[in-house]
Request: fold
Amino acid sequence: MRTPIIAGNWKLNKTISEAVTLTTALKALIADDTDVGVIVAPPFTALSAVSDAIAGSNIHLAAQDVYWEDSGAFTGEISAPMLKDAGCDYVIIGHSERRQYFGETNDSVNQKVKAALAYNLKPIICVGEQLEEREVGQTEAVIESHITGGVAGLSAADLSSCVIAYEPVWAIGTGKTATPAQAQEVHNFIRGLLTKAYSAEVASQICIQYGGSVKPENAAELMAQPDVDGALVGGASLEAESFAKIVLSFNHQLDSVINVKARVDG
Reply:
């Protein structure tokens, strides 16, 4: 079974001291016995301090973006080797806010994914449609362009190090959430795209997260869907208690899925 991955994207929030306080509280709440992968993605300024704070725990560190060059005259950018040096294991790439506000394209996403992989950073590749695109029936076309563009040129081994995050843009920060059925439909479509591009075996191993107003109240129901393998959490990850509830909700749901499977197989 795929291990669910719950990632907290803190966006433009938290000073260094606030980030350490949040991480310390989170460590205590989720302990170290969860079967769910846990990631926090603070702003660049807090990466190193949070890396120290999570040392020895089951929490992994992610950056919110990366540039595709290792070094050079690129004022304001952060490279993959810099992120590795700061303690990162993952990096979020292609978030809808990067696309909307900072000109991210499928081509730049692809370059960043390859740069991350070159330094053993695991990319969390974000895909998702705008509300107007969903309303005119373009969801699958948009998702396909994001997927095919983002993973272009990747080998099966490369893809196995990637996480896909489906985030319907209309559900980010709006309080609206795709229904579990809507999330499952798109997640299944994504896995189908990966099956065509690679193989069913490869596609079955890829973690596909859901992102978009994930809260403790809806996490378990989303996790119950067969192709939803975790969550990319925004606002609810800025408080240790609410993020821990989501992590533990997925953990408990995973236990239920395993128990059901064991009874069926047994």
